[in-house]
Target: mRNA export factor GLE1
Amino acid sequence: MGTIGLFNDDSSDSEVEVQKVNEKHVNERKVIKTIKHKNINKRRDFLLKSKHMKNKSFSNYTFTPVNPIIKEIRKSQCTNNWKKLSNNIEKESWLVANFKIKEFENHNFNIKSSFSEDFKKEIEKTQNNLSQLSLWGKSIREKETLKMNKNNDLMNKEIEDCIKYKKQQEALIEKKKKEELERKLKEEKAKKELELQKQKKLEQEKLEKEKAQKLKKEQEEKIKQQQELVKKQEEQKKAMANDTLSSFGSQKAIDEAHCYIDEIKKIKNEIRPAVKENKEWKKQSFMLKMKITTRVGQITNTRDSVKEISNALNDVLNQGKQISNEVYYWLMDFLGKAMMKQAEKEISINKTMAFPLAHIFNIIVSNHEPFFKIFMGRLYKKCIYLIPRYGYKTKDKSDEECLKEIGYKKTSEGMENESRYNERMEGMITLFSAIIQTPNTSGNSKLNMASGWTWLARILNMPPRQITSLTLITFLEIAGNEMLNVYGKQMHKLLNFIMKVYIPMAPKESIAATTRLKLFIEKYQKDGGRIDIPKGKNFT
Model:
């Protein structure tokens, strides 16, 4: 700030004057120096020139040989002359130079005296200006000092704030480090505790597992022993009951039937839960199930109906097979149940409906072989008399359990009445009788006339029960004509046996069914050994 004030507009005139005086003084000093050195330079040039001329003059002349003594004398004379001449020239030049110097010195003294007075005035003026400038600079410095002090105070405060903030940040960082360290220590501690707990838990689980395995082995051994004991007891009971068992059914027939019934149990225990657990299978099988229900309910006694519904049911089962094997078996089981319902409700009332259903059964079996076992399992489960087998009461069985065993259904009012039960049994025996005489498209039917003959022989080997007359008359009304065509004389003998031996053995409670059976055989005998073709067999 101080240096800026020296070049303000107020002091510009004085500065110009001082500058002019300085230039004047400098120029005069240059002139004096030039004059002082001019003569000296001239003298030097003269000496150099004369020396050059001297050398030149000698070089331009040629000398004739002379006496050496003369030569030496001449040489010395010439040298002396030249020395005198140069000394004279030098003295003259010095005199001229000194004179000129004195003139310039006098002139310079006059200039100096006049210049010094002007210069003193200028100096005084300049000093005044400088004193003013110094005062002005001092005031500015004081102002700037105050301003700088304020700025310094502010800066010091900011520095202190920064230092304070830095300390706070360092304290926070230190605090965070401590907290982080404490957290890590806690985590490590918790981790160690968790590992210890896991180890303890694993050890405990191991001990429990070992205990469970040990207990399981003990239980298995115990169960095995119990099973062996039960097996022995059953064998003993079986051995004791062998004599009387034939009165309830053929053991071979019962074993054969159980093979089919076990298939139903397998579907119930394994396949049905698998389908229910899989949401996609459940959804798809539900849609296909609805199609089966609809189609079975649409069966009529016409060939077109049989063909259309058979194709539709085949398509449904094929779709199920593509989804999964479980869905396929589940749908076949559902179709078997649907056919049983049809036999219980429709065929028991209208026996002619047995034949279209028998045709559909054979078509389905020819395309889906596993359906045969499922259907037979359902048929034997619903009607034990087709095995054939009778129920029997023991001390540990209640009346309700005995009724359930032979196929009675429980309703809201209790167990169904005997009339409804007999109707259902009659419907299923009718379906069985229609199937054995319906030809299979593949020509290899497992349920054929031989199956009918075996069933008839087995049931006649058992003591008659209240239901027996109903089963016999139902079978003969539907399959009697075809049985007579196939077995001829043997069938004739069997009918005579029923008339003479079996009917007299029938219980009094089955008088209605026994009377129907007796009238049927009497008509056969009266018609000359001929049985009418059942209604609905030859549908178009």
